[in-house]
Design goal:
By secondary structure, the protein is of the alpha/beta class. It has helices at residues 8-12, 51-64, 85-99, 117-125, 138-144, 154-166, 185-195, 238-255, 263-272, 319-323, 326-337, 341-344, 349-352, 375-397, 405-411; strands at residues 15-18, 70-75, 103-110, 129-133, 171-177, 199-204, 208-209, 230-231, 261-262, 289-292, 297-299, 310-313, 362-363, 369-371.
């Protein structure tokens, strides 16, 4: 479990996720928040990013990060493979041209529908990291992830997964957690563990929509708007999500630490180590992860692609200038500045930081706006994992593998640390130097 603090260069940089075909996609996933973004460009005639825009993006992005020895590109959609393999051949060629010897990394998120041997061979040759969308067993995946004709996609995605494995392409599983899958955490985890690569990212589905939206209007609304909206029926419930994570964590911490890497658990451990979490959701401020539309428009965040969050176009303004603009600074700082007092006083503020601003549309018990929709679930999860995280953090500080937590759990005779029969006055087994009753046993 590689846990390292952010370097000064990483902290001062920025990241752009490019969408070479915008919201265009060959699937019609019911819960997709980006598919309707085509309404922002009613006059658009070309879907694929032009050669001129592609070159300007790669050149400006590399130039803007001249202080970094390694450059990370990310491609998403919609479905980015719809841009075609020649598009990405051109992209790699331009990266080599402008990087001038610096290391370039590429990550691409895909639904896998177009994945074949030619694609996989290219991805393997150029060391692309793939994020493959797979929600779990067939009945869960196909419930929401179908194509325009209503046909299921599970078997095609599983075929793509095997093709990636055959060509030894590095990939992570991206599993969306919705109202249905959240009720079957053990089944979902065991399936992904059996068929994946050992790396899993769980993505909570939380969307709000307005009723009777006009054809030209966006139905899914941003959290800081004053339009009345309701949470979609497929969105995961707050406590439901917390219970989902907790169940999977209990499976993972007993048998899979060091062999299965769950992004959420790694991020939490960073916080318990005292580091600023690498995942933007849990950082103190945001604003350093932007989105580039296929026409060159830059937006503040993937979840805030709305006209008021458009920073400009890279064909008219340098990418670095937009990324470091006052408007983007205000956007990023708002995450911390608008955090309710209720959240600031929370025992788990150090790890949560209010999570993503996209989800902050509830009010606190004191009727203060800005409470995260998933708050109840996060509090449930963080309270549960606290003793385990303390133990693993202590192992890391003492240059021992955090996987030792599995043996520690076994020593508790099958009980969780909170319910162990450890003498309350004995030193806590997490290594803190405090009595058990004052440390991991305080919630027993």
């Amino acid at each position: 479990m590689p846990i390292t603090p952010l370097s000064q260069e990483q902290a001062s940089g920025y990241h752009v996720m490019a969408k070479p075909v915008g919201p265009a996609c060959n699937l019609r996933c019911l819960y997709c928040f980006y598919l309707e973004k085509y309404k922002l460009y009613p006059d658009r005639t070309e879907t694929v990013m032009s050669a001129e825009t592609l070159e300007a993006y790669i050149r400006q992005y590399i130039e803007g990060l001249s202080h970094q020895p390694e450059i990370h590109f990310a491609w998403q959609g919609g479905e980015p493979t719809m841009a075609g393999l020649d598009f990405f051949r051109k992209a790699v060629k331009l990266q080599k041209q402008y990087a001038e010897g610096r290391t370039v990394h590429n990550a691409l998120q895909t639904n896998g529908i177009l994945m074949d041997d030619e694609w996989a061979a290219f991805l393997a040759e150029h060391n692309f990291l793939i994020g493959l969308s797979l929600d779990g067993p067939e009945r869960f995946h196909d419930a929401f992830r179908r194509d325009a004709a209503g046909r299921p996609s599970f078997k095609r995605v599983m075929g793509a997964l095997e093709t990636l494995k055959k060509h030894e392409v590095e990939f992570n599983i991206l599993a969306c957690v919705n109202r249905q899958t959240a009720d079957a955490p053990e089944e979902v985890y065991r399936f992904l563990r059996a068929h994946g690569s050992g790396f899993i990212q769980f993505i909570p589905i939380v969307e709000r929509s307005i009723e009777n939206a006009a054809p030209e209007e966006l139905a899914l609304v941003k959290p800081d708007g004053d339009i009345e909206a309701t949470v979609t029926p497929w969105s995961v419930g707050p406590l439901q999500y917390g219970a989902f994570l907790t169940t999977i964590f209990d499976l993972w911490v007993r048998a899979d630490v060091g062999t299965q890497f769950v992004q959420f658990f790694d991020t939490a451990l960073e916080a318990w180590m005292g580091y600023e979490p690498s995942l933007c959701f849990f950082r103190t401020q945001c604003g350093d992860a932007m989105v580039l539309e296929s026409n060159g428009d830059l937006y503040s965040c993937d979840h805030f692609v709305y006209p008021e969050h458009r920073l400009g176009n890279l064909m008219e303004m340098p990418l670095s200038a937009m990324a470091r603009s006052p408007e983007q600074h205000v956007f990023g700082a708002a995450k911390q500045e608008k955090l309710p007092a209720y959240c600031r006083a929370c025992a788990f503020h150090f790890v949560c930081k209010g999570e993503c601003p996209k989800h902050r549309f509830l009010t606190t018990p004191e009727n203060e706006s800005g409470l995260n929709y998933l708050c109840e679930g996060y509090r449930h999860f963080f309270k549960h994992v606290d003793p385990y995280m303390r133990f693993m953090a202590n192992e890391l500080r003492n240059r021992r593998p955090p996987a030792n937590v599995m043996e520690w759990v076994r020593q508790q005779s099958g009980a969780s640390p909170e319910k162990s029969k450890t003498d309350p006055n004995a030193l806590c087994p997490c290594g803190s130097g405090r009595k058990y009753k004052k440390c991991c046993g305080k919630n027993a």
